[in-house]
Amino acid sequence: MTGQRGRPVLALHVAVVLLLLGLQFVVSPFQHGMLARIMVLAAFAVGYNVLLGYTGLMSLGHAMFFAAGMYATGLTVFYVGAGPVDGFLIGLGAGVVLSAAMGLIVLRTTGVSFLIVTMMFAQVFYLTTLYFNRITGGDQGLILTGHLHPLRLGALQLPFADPAVKYNVALAVFGLCFLLSLWLTASPAGRVLVAVRENEDRTTMLGFNTFTYKLLALVISGGISGMAGSAYTLLFSYVGSSFASILYSIYPLLWTLVGGSGTTIGPLVGTALMTYVVDITSGVTPGYLIVVGVVLVVIILKFPSGIVGGIRARWLPWLP
Amino acid sequence: MAAVAAVAPLLATHALRRTFGGLVAVRSVDFRLDRGEIRSIIGPNGAGKTTLLGIICGRIPPTSGRVVFNGRDITALRAYERVALGIVYTFQIISIYKRLTVYENVALAAERRLMRTPLDHLVAVRLPVAEQVEGALDEVGLRGTASRIAGSLPYGHQRLLEVAMALAAGPEVLALDEPTQGLAPDEIASLCALIRRMSATITILLVEHNMQVVLELSRRITVMDRGAIIAEGSPREIEANPDVRRVYLGL
Amino acid sequence: MSLEGHLVLALLEGLVSSLVVALTALGLSLVFGVMRIVNVAHGEFFMLGAVITWYVSTAAGSFLPALIVAPLAVGALALVINRVVLRPIRYDPAATIVATIGLLYIIQQLVLTIYGPYARPVVPPFYFRVDLPWFGYSGYKLVVAGVAALLLVATWLLVTKTTLGLYMRATQQDRETALAFGVPVDRIYASAFALGAVLAALAGVLVVPEQQAHYLMGLDALLLSFMVVIIGGLGSLPGTVAAAFLIGMTDGVVSVFFSPTLARIIASGLVALVLVWRSGGLFGDAAA
Amino acid sequence: MPDGKISRREVLKTAGALVGAGLAGKLAGYLPTASGPGAVAQAAAPSGTPVRIGFEVHRTGIGAVYGKWFEQTTTATVKLINEMGGIAGRPLEIVAEDDGTDPKRGVEVVEKLALQEKVDVIFGTLFSNVVIANAPRAGELKIPYFVVSEGYHVASGKLNRYVFQPGITDVRAQVTAIAPWIIKNLGKKVTMVYPDYAFGYDHRDFFGQAAAKLGGTVQALIPIPPTETSFTKYFSRIPGDTEVVYHVMVGPGVLTFVREMGEYFGSRKVKLFGFIDSLEGVDIASPGLEFLEGSYIWEAFPRYAGNVNTMAERNYRQRVGVDASGASVADPKDVSTYSHMFGCWETLYVIKQAMEKSGYKSPTPGDYKALIETLEKIQRFDEGMEHPQGTKRFVGRLHQSFGRQFISQVQNKKLKVVYMTKIEDGMYPPEADYTTQPL
Lengths: 320, 251, 288, 439
Prior knowledge:
The structure holds 4 protein chains of 4 kinds.
Chain B: H1 2-7, E1 11-20, E2 23-33, E3 38-42, H2 49-57, E4 64-69, E5 72-73, H3 79-85, E6 87-90, H4 102-114, H5 118-122, H6 127-140, H7 155-168, E7 173-177, H8 185-199, E8 203-207, H9 211-217, E9 220-225, E10 228-233, H10 235-240, H11 242-247
Parallel strand pairs in B: 3-8, 3-9, 6-7, 7-8
Antiparallel strand pairs in B: 1-2, 1-4, 4-5, 9-10
Helix pairs in contact in B: 4-6, 4-7, 6-7
Chain C: H1 3-35, H2 42-60, H3 64-86, H4 93-115, E1 129-131, E2 136-138, H5 139-161, H6 163-173, H7 175-180, H8 185-207, H9 217-232, H10 237-257, H11 260-277
Antiparallel strand pairs in C: 1-2
Chain D: H1 2-30, H2 35-40, E1 51-57, H3 64-83, E2 92-98, H4 103-116, E3 121-123, H5 128-141, E4 145-146, E5 163-164, H6 171-185, E6 189-195, H7 200-213, E7 217-224, H8 232-235, E8 244-247, H9 254-265, E9 271-275, E10 296-299, H10 311-320, H11 338-358, H12 365-377, E11 380-381, E12 392-395, E13 400-403, E14 406-411, E15 414-420, H13 423-426
Parallel strand pairs in D: 1-2, 1-3, 3-4, 4-5, 6-7, 6-8, 8-9, 9-10
Antiparallel strand pairs in D: 10-14, 11-12, 12-13, 14-15
Helix pairs in contact in D: 1-3, 1-10, 3-11, 4-5, 6-7, 11-12
C-alpha cells in the first residue's frame, strides 16, 4: 500500500521472474520441461487466486475458463489455421468473454452456492465439449502438430517443439499473469476487491458497487485462466475434454490453497510443490498417492493458511 | 429557518411502507429531514426505526412510497449510489475491515470518491487519500493509530473508526444506527462531542436508545411506534408529549 | 414404446434415483449443515461403505452383516479423522478442503492397493424383477428407494426431536451462542461428522448391489450430494429431499427425450439456474 | 545416483507384481507347456548394458484395471525374454511410471522416461486420450513410442512417425471384421450403445459404415456420457423393432449397464452383441450378468482356456499367471483383461525383433532411424510364442497391426468362441502414410 513497502515487494517479484529466467540454463532437460509446464499451470492458479485469494469467491468451475482458452486457441489453429499469436489472443478473448457472461449469472450467488453453480456450469461446458465431439474430438481430443505454425518474432522463426521456445513462452505468460496479479494487489481496484473479500456489506455502504468489482475480478481471473489454457495448447499441441473435467477445477483450488491463497507467490509455490511431490513420489512407490495425501495433510496442519500464507503470518508480514 | 426548511427539505419520504410477509414494519411514513439538523428517531424495539433508516439508505427496498433527497427521487437508487450522493450509514453492529489496518479502512472510504476515471482504479492515487485519511482520523481522535490492525483496537475506538470511515466517504447526511451501543460513559461523552462537531457541516440522522444522548444532541426528535410516526418535535415537546410518555417512556 | 411408457419410466427412474441421491446426500447435509465445512472425502465414506460390503458379503456369504459392520467401521474412522485432522485445524473452511483432499488421496490409494481397481458386484439380499406393461424394473431398486425414505424420516426425527438434534440445530444456527449456552460444540461436531459418515457408508451399502463397489465411486457421489445439499438449502432436510427430486426428476424426464449427453447438459444447466434464482437454496436461508 | 534410483524402482516394481510374475515363474519350471520355452532355457544369460524400455502404465485413475494387468503381463514377458537371452544378448529392463490415466501427467511421464531415465523406447499406453496427448511430445523428443491402445488413432495418421501400434488390432479393423457376422447372423436393424468418449466414436463411425455396406441400418445411436451410474432411463430410446443391441462400455458402470438392460428387456426378444471391453476385469459369472447368457461378445483373445488350443497360448496364459477362466492364478477374484494385455507381450517381442534386426545399440538418431525403418518394412508377425494371439499383418505405412478377431457366445456363464475372422476381414484401405514423414 505505502511507498517504502512497494520497493522490496517489486524487487522480490522481479527476482522470482529472473530466477525462473535463469533456471533454464542450469536445469536438466527434464526439469526444463517440467518447469515450463509448471509455469503455465501456475499462471492458471494465479488467475484462480485473483478470485479466491483477493475477492473471496471460491469457484469449482475454473476448468471451463482454462478449457475455453484451450479450445478457442486449439480449434482456430486446427480448423482456421490461425497463427500462434492470433490463436493466443483468441484464447485470451474466450476466457474473458466466457467469464464475463458467466459472471452476469453466477455472481448472483455467493459462498457455497457460488461454488456449486460454477461447478455445474463447468460440467455443462465439459459435456458440451463431448457432445460436439465431431468438432472437438471429444476426450480423445485434437493434435495441433502440423497445423501450428512456429512463433514469428521479426525475422526469426520459433517452433514450439523447441524446448527453449516452450520454456520462454511459458515464462512470458506466467510472468505477465504474475506481475499482473501483483499490480492488482497494489492498485486501488485491487484494494476494493480485498475489501469485498473482508466485508462486502461494509464495502457497499462505502459507496462501491461490489457487483461490478466482483465481475472485474472474475473476468481478470477467467482471462488469465484462458491465457494459461491457450498457452498449454500451444506448448503441448493438444486439445482435449480431460482438461475441462472437474479435476482441472479442483487443481487450481488445491494449488492455490496449498501455496497460500491471497498471496501473489502462493500459486506458484503450490503448483510447483504439488507437481514435484507427485513426480518424485510416483517414481519411488506405486502407492505414491498415499504420500501425496499425507504431505497435503501435514502441510495444512503446519500451515493452515498455505505455505506462503504461513510465512507471511510468521516472518514476512509485508508479503502481498 | 424552519420556514426555509419547509421549502427545501434535504431528505423526505412520502407514504413509505414496508412489509415483511404479513408484518408491517413501516406504514405510510412521511418523514422529512432539514439540512444541518441533528435528528433522532426513537421508539420501542420493533417500532421500525432501523427499517426506516434502512429504506432511507437504500439497504431495504420499500414496498411502496418514495424517498426524495435534495429534491431528487432516489427511491430506485441502490445503497452504493446513495452513498455517492452523500447518504452515509454506520452499522448498529460495528462493521469495519477487522483484518486491515486503520489506514486501509479509512483509505477505502476516501478512495471511492477519488476514483472517478477507470485509470484511477489502475494506478494508486496517493496524496489526497493520505491527507483525507489523516483528516478523518484526527477528527474522530484516532490520530497515530493508522498503522494498527483495526480488529486490535478497543471496542470504542472501532466505533470511532467506523465514524471516521463515514466521514472520509464525504457524507451530506450521516445516518448513525445506535452509535453509543456498548460504549463506556466517557466514550459516549466524547462521541456526543464529535457528533456535535460534525453537525456543523453534516446533517445527522440518529437512531438511538440512550435518552440522555438523544435529549442532549437532538434539535428535533421523531418518535415511532408500530411502524408509524406518532410524534415529532423538539426534545422538550417530546418529553412533554403524553403519547410518547405512555408508549415509549412507559410512564 | 408408447409415450405413457416413456413417462412412467421417466417418473419411476426420477423417483427412485432421487431417493437414492437423497440418501447419499443425507450425511453430507448433516455435516455441511452443522459444521459448515466442505468435506471432500465424504464421498470416500460412501465408497468405503460399498467396498466393506463386498468384503463382508464375500466373507460371510451374506449382504446383511454389512449393514452393521460398514457403518460402524466408517463411523469410527470418521471420529479418528475428526480428532486427528479436522479439530487441529479448527474446521477452518479452506484448510479443511485441502486436508480432506489429502484424505481422499490416502483413502482411495489404500483401497486401490488392498481391494484393487476392479468394479466388484455384490449379490443383493434378494432379487426380483417388477414387470410393467411397457418394461421391467429392478425390485431391489424400489426397495432401496423405500429404505432411503425411511432413513430420511429417521434422520429428520433425530434432528428435530432429540437433544442431540437440538444441539446440532443450535450449533448450526450460531456456534458462539451455542457454546455460551453450554452446548458441547466439540462433541456435537464429532458426532455430526461421525453420523454423517455413518449415513454415507449406509448409502454405500444399500447402493452397492445396484452399482458395483469401485475405488473411484466416491467423487461423483460427493459432487451429486453436494449439489443436492446446496440446492436444497443449508442443513434443511426437506430441502435436500426436494432438491434430490428436482435433480432426479429433471434428469429422468429430460433423459427420455434427448440423447444422453445432451440430456445431461440440459439437466445440469436447468438445475444450476434454479440455484441462481434461489441462491439461498430451495428451503435455505441465504447461502453461507 | 540414477542407478541407485532405478534399482530401487526395480525392487518395488517387482514387489508390486510379485504375485503375478513370481508365481508364474515358479510354475514355469515344471509345467509341460514350458517345454517350448524350456528348450531355450539353455540360451546364454543376457549380459552387458541393459536395454531399458520405459513403461507408461495406468496404475491409478480410471484405467487401473488394465494397468494392473498390463504391468503383470509386461513383467512376465520381460522375465521370459531375459530367460531366453534378452534383446540382442542384452538384458531387458523395464522402467515403469504411473500416469494416473491422465493426459497431462502422461506427457510428463513421456518426458521423464525420455529425458531423465533416458530409456531406449517407451511403450504401454492404453487410454486413447492419453495416447493422443502424448504422441506430439514423443514426436518432438524423437523417441519411438509403442502404444497398446486398440484405438483408431495410430492408423488414422493423426499421430506421427515415432508412434507404433504393432501389438494389437485397432477398433476400426475389429469392427470392420465382425460387422458382417452381426448383420448376417443377428439382424439388420441395430441400435448402438457406446461411451460418448474414448473409443466410442470409433465404434459409432466404423460400425455404421461397415453395416451400411451389408444392408444393415443403425436405427439409433445412444452415446453414454462419462460417470453415468444408471442407464435404465436411456433404454427407452431403443426403437421397438430393433433386432440387435450393439453395446460397448468402459468404466466401472458396465455391470450395472448390463444388469439394467436385463431388467429392462426381460423376456423381450432382442439380440445382444457386446464388446469384451465392457467386461474386462469382470467375471462373466457375476451376479446380474445372467441376462448375457446366450448373447454374443467380441473378444480379441479368448479369455477362457481351450478356445485357442495352441502351445503358445497355454505358455502365455501360464507365464502371465492367468487360470483357465481368465482370472489371476493368485486370486481367482482378480479377472484379467485378456483381450488387451496380450498386446504388451506381443509389442515387447516386436520391439525385440526390430531392435535385433536393425542392430539397435543406443538411443541415438541413427539407431532410431534404423529401428523405425526396419520396423516399417516388416509385413507380418507369425503366430507363435512371441505372438500367441495369432499371426498379424503389419502395415508399415500405418504403423498398425491387423490380427484375427473372435466372436464368442456366453454359454453356462462362460465365453465359447463361435466364430473367428480372417485377418483380411478387418483390413481397410490405408488413409495414412507415416513413412513419408521425415525423421
